[in-house]
Amino acid sequence: MGRYPRQARNARIKCVECNAPVVETTGERYVCINCGESPIAVRSS
Length: 45
Ligand SMILES: [Zn+2]
Fold this sequence. Notes:
Elements lengths: L5 H4 L4 E2 L6 E4 L3 E4 L7 E2 L4
The structure holds zinc ion (ZN).
């Protein structure tokens, strides 16, 4: 598609709903680029 923010490519967080990359927005919120939801699974290695 190419509409995704470049930031999304480096996302280390995946949406639990659709497994799409989640990007950090202003205000320290994380939003899925696909569905716009914010329930996320933070991968803590
Ligand atoms: Zn999603």
